[in-house]
Amino acid sequence: MAARDEWSISCRDLAGRRRDLTVLVSSGRVVLVAPPGEAAVLEPLDVGRLRAALRDAVVVVGEQSR
Question: How many CA atoms lie within 13 A of 46 on its CB side?
Answer without folding.
Answer: 15
